[in-house]
Design a protein that fits this description.
The chain has twelve helices and four strands; from the N terminus they run ββαααααααααββααα. The protein is mostly helical. The strands form two sheets. It has a two-stranded antiparallel ribbon with strand order 1-2.
C-alpha cells in the first residue's frame, strides 16, 4: 500500500497521519447521532469484540470449575499462568514477527522509521530493547496479570462479591459490558497521571518510557509497581456488582489491549489494498512527547485537563506553550525559595 495517500513523512523519515485525532463523539450536546453511528464500528473493532470473544473462550475452555477455585492451589494457578504465558507470546509475538522481524510491510505506516533492533542501547537489559521488553513482560507482567485473575476468581467462587448471572439480569450485564472500556480508560488515566509524578516517574514509570520507539513487546514492559496498578483495573469488579466473564473481558482489554498503543504502525496491512487501523497514534504521541494523551480519547479526560494532543501543528504549539508556562512557574517558585543575602 502507498502510505503517502494517508500521511506524510518528515525530514527524518518519520510518518504521521493526515487526519487529526478525535475523542469519542459521545460528549457533544446536542448529540450528533450520525457521527456516533459512524464511530461505533471503531468502538467494537478490531479490539473490543476480540477481547470479549477471548474472555468467553477462556472461561469456557481454560478456567477450572468454580469448586476448584474456592481454594487457591498451585495446580490451577500454574495452569492459568502457563496459558497466559502462551497467549501473550502468541498474540504479541504474531505482531512482532510479522512487523518487526519479517518486516513484511517494511516501514510503511510506521511512525518512527527506525526499528528497535537496529538501535541497541545501554538503557535496556542486554543492550536490546526487544529482549528487555520481553523479559519485563514475562518476569513481572504475566505473573501479576495471573495473580490479579486468581484473586478475582477466588473471590467470586467463594461468594465474597456479588455474582450477577446473565439469566438474572441480562440488560444490566450488557450495559456493564459496554461500559468496561470506559471504566478501564478512567482507571488508566488516573494511574497514568499518578506515575507521572516526578518521584514515581523516576523510579517506576521511566522503565516503560525507555521505549520511545515502541514495538509490540513494549506493551507490557513495565516496572512491577506499574504492573500492579495497571492490572488492578480488574479489581473494579470486586466493587461493582458484576460477572466473572465480564471481569475477565476487562482484564483482557488491559492485558491484550496494550498492543493498540504500542504496535508502532498506523495501519497493519492485511492484503495488497487492505489494512486494519489498530488505533495506535494517540498513545504513540504520549511516548513521543511524554506529557500528552494520558488516555486514548474514549473518555475526554485529556481534553478536560489540557493534555490532549490530536497530532496537528496547532496541538504542538499548545503543548509547547503549556510546557513554557510550567517552566515559568517552576522557575518562579525557585526564585521565591532562594534566600536573599
Amino acid at each position: 500500500m502507498d502510505d503517502s495517500k494517508l500521511g506524510t513523512r518528515d525530514k527524518r523519515g518519520n510518518w504521521a497521519p493526515n487526519t487529526a485525532l478525535k475523542v469519542a463523539p459521545l460528549y457533544q450536546f446536542p448529540l450528533k447521532f450520525g457521527e456516533i453511528i459512524k464511530w461505533l464500528p471503531n468502538f467494537f473493532l478490531p479490539w473490543n469484540l476480540f477481547f470479549a470473544v477471548s474472555a468467553v473462550a477462556y472461561w469456557a475452555w481454560i478456567v477450572p470449575p468454580v469448586e476448584t477455585m474456592q481454594n487457591i492451589a498451585w495446580g490451577w494457578v500454574l495452569k492459568l499462568w502457563l496459558v497466559n504465558v502462551v497467549a501473550v507470546i502468541l498474540f504479541y509475538g504474531a505482531f512482532e514477527v510479522r512487523l518487526y522481524i519479517q518486516r513484511a510491510q517494511e516501514n510503511r505506516f510506521k511512525y518512527n522509521h527506525k526499528f528497535p533492533a537496529d538501535t541497541p542501547s545501554d538503557v535496556f537489559w542486554f543492550g536490546s530493547q526487544n529482549m528487555d521488553n520481553f523479559a519485563r513482560g514475562m518476569l513481572s507482567g504475566v505473573p501479576i496479570w495471573t495473580g490479579t485473575q486468581v484473586i478475582v476468581f477466588w473471590a467470586y467462587a467463594n461468594g465474597y462479591v456479588p455474582w450477577i448471572r446473565f439469566a438474572e439480569n441480562p440488560v444490566y450485564l450488557v450495559i456493564l459490558t459496554l461500559l468496561v472500556p470506559f471504566i478501564h480508560e478512567v482507571h488508566f488515566f488516573c494511574i497514568h497521571r499518578l506515575i507521572h509524578i516526578p518521584f514515581l516517574y523516576k523510579h517506576v514509570h521511566s522503565v516503560h518510557h525507555n521505549s520511545i520507539n515502541v514495538s509490540p513487546w513494549s506493551s507490557l514492559s513495565m516496572h512491577p509497581v506499574e504492573h500492579l496498578l495497571y492490572f488492578a483495573t480488574m479489581l473494579w469488579h470486586l466493587i461493582i456488582p458484576s460477572n466473572p466473564v465480564i471481569a475477565l473481558y476487562h482484564l483482557h482489554a488491559a492485558g491484550f489491549g496494550a498492543i493498540s498503543g504500542h504496535v508502532g504502525f498506523d495501519r497493519i496491512e492485511v492484503g495488497k489494498n487492505r489494512a486494519i487501523d489498530p488505533h495506535s497514534y494517540t498513545h504513540y504521541l504520549h511516548h513521543k512527547y511524554f506529557e500528552v494523551n494520558y488516555s486514548d480519547g474514549l473518555v475526554p479526560l485529556d481534553k478536560m485537563f489540557g493534555s490532549w494532543h490530536d497530532g496537528t501543528k496547532e496541538a504542538d504549539e499548545c503543548m509547547k506553550e503549556r510546557f513554557r508556562k510550567t517552566r515559568a512557574r517552576v522557575n518562579a517558585a525557585k526564585k521565591r525559595q532562594t534566600p536573599v543575602v
